[in-house]
Design a protein that fits this description.
Blueprint (H helix, E strand, L loop, with lengths): L1 H17 L8 E10 L10 E9 L12 E9 L4 E7 L52 E7 L5 E14 L5 E14 L1 E4 L25 E5 L15 E9 L20 E6 L13 E8 L8 E9 L4 E8 L31 E4 L6 E8 L10 E5 L8 E9 L32 H23 L1
Antiparallel strand pairs: 1-2, 1-10, 2-3, 3-8, 4-5, 4-9, 5-6, 6-7, 9-10, 11-12, 11-18, 12-13, 13-16, 14-15, 14-17, 17-18
Length: 456
């Protein structure tokens, strides 16, 4: 009996080392609340929310390649027509950049055979949702079709290129309007293109494809599928993708990318969201910046410049979620978010004090955050009075800032990011030490149990 027990415990102990950690799959959710760019024109009511869902991997140590469901049934007020639908590189409402393409490893011609780019299929614009085509940018979601009632659907589209002659007489391609069919309220997009969480630390050879903290844009024209970006025109409506409340029983939240580290976030207040209090048209931006991403002390700073506020104190703080899916028109955005370690006050944001009748408030604070991904996709709110229970009058969802962003109307501390000593996010190293350390602890325990049983 003693040797049977010994064999069982030894097999069990070594199984703890060799067997990956498995858990039940959960649904990871994120959402973007889109507001119109043309506030005073005919497209003012083009708004609503888009929901993203992705099943987690049962093995939490593996990268997630499960498809991402994108649901546009929450969009409303859009003019009738077809419109380009894309995820952009930055969650920056001033300059969202081009379509999302992950940070890739470059080809290495010095080895034989020469290596390819780690995301060679992600750099050319095209249409998704066809199994035969994998060569399209990770942020390409194709087109949506909106009906006369303002509701929208995602369509499967194919490009219609036509041979033509370029300016210099060289052969060229002209892209006619695409053929779009099978329009539905939701579709599942390839998880190999984009995800709702970064890969786990144990996966060191995978690209971070999380879109949390990036902008979702509906354009003013149809995407024709041609290079470089489908000629879909300017943004008609846009918002930042962020986490939402967890479903009952779930523990995994949508998370922003970690690799390379996010060095700056921008939270842009949009007066369109002030639906209840039209007498206070709040506008402005808040910036959170890390001056050195390799600084383990996490020296950072926050600057905000807000206009349209009334004299007095206004409660000012972060919330856990980007939007409220149970009531998208609600300003209740989950509990107050005090950072990854609330006891340390790593980024203390409490009140805005407006002393001038001009309604302008300037906020500056030092903070201690070594990483900003914790705040990406979360909301920053301003309240009518000094209490957190006072009505919310302005909401901004914080997204990844474009390094080229400038604030031309600023009269305070906010200027151009390039001139504000923002860190360069180029460190792509991954930490794999914790997994190895855990395995060594388990091995040591197994040896100790084995020795004790032999001496018994």
């Amino acid at each position: 009996m003693k040797y049977s027990s010994l064999l069982f415990i030894t097999i069990l102990s070594f199984g703890m080392i060799c067997t990956p950690h498995f858990t039940f799959a959960e649904t990871i959710k994120a959402a973007a609340y889109l507001s119109p760019v043309d506030k005073d024109g005919s497209k003012r009511r083009a708004y609503g929310y888009v929901i993203f869902e992705q099943e987690s991997m049962a093995n939490t140590n593996n990268k997630n390649t499960n498809r991402v469901k994108v649901d546009v049934s929450g969009l409303m007020g859009f003019p009738k027509g077809y419109y380009g639908f894309h995820i952009h590189q930055y969650g920056d409402m001033i300059q969202p950049g081009t379509h999302f393409i992950p940070i890739c490893t470059e080809p290495d011609p010095t080895v034989t055979p020469a290596t390819k780019s780690s995301c060679e299929d992600d750099v050319t614009h095209g249409f998704p949702l066809t199994d035969v085509n994998n060569k399209y940018q990770a942020g390409d979601l194709g087109n949506i079709r909106c009906d006369a009632n303002g509701g929208c659907q995602i369509c499967i589209c194919t490009a219609n290129p036509q041979d033509s002659e370029g300016v210099d007489g060289a052969p060229s391609k002209k892209y006619n309007p695409p053929t779009c069919v099978n329009c539905e309220k939701s579709y599942h997009f390839k998880g190999e293109k984009f995800t709702l969480q970064p890969p786990p630390p144990s996966v060191t050879d995978d690209i971070d494809r999380s879109v949390v903290g990036r902008a979702l844009v509906v354009h003013a024209k149809v995407d024709n599928g041609g290079p470089p970006f489908g000629d879909a025109g300017p943004a008609m409506s846009r918002g930042v993708i962020g986490p939402v409340a967890l479903d009952t029983g779930n523990t995994l939240s949508a998370e922003a990318p970690r690799n390379p580290p996010i060095s700056s976030l921008i939270c842009a207040f949009d007066e369109y969201l002030n639906t209840e209090y039209t007498d206070q048209k709040v506008k402005g931006e808040a910036l959170i910046m890390i001056s050195n991403v390799n600084n383990i002390n996490g020296d950072c700073e926050m600057h905000a410049e807000i206009t349209g506020l009334k004299v007095g104190e206004h409660s000012f703080h972060f919330h856990a979620y980007s939007t409220n899916l149970s009531d998208p028109n609600s300003q209740v955005l989950g509990p107050i978010y005090n950072g990854p370690d609330p006891d340390k006050n790593q980024l203390e944001v409490k009140t805005l004090n407006v002393k001038s009748a001009t309604g302008k408030a300037i906020f500056e604070a030092k903070c201690s955050l070594s990483e900003l991904y914790f705040y990406a996709g979360r909301s920053l709110t301003i309240h009518k009075g000094p209490s957190i229970n006072d009505p919310t009058i302005a909401v901004a969802v914080c997204g990844m800032a474009n390094p080229d962003t400038c604030f031309e109307e600023s009269t305070g501390p906010v200027g151009c990011l390039k001139g504000m000593n923002v860190a360069d996010s180029t460190d792509t190293s991954a930490n794999t030490g914790s997994l190895m350390q855990s395995s060594m602890v388990t091995l040591s325990l197994s040896i100790l149990i084995f020795s004790q049983l032999l001496l018994a």
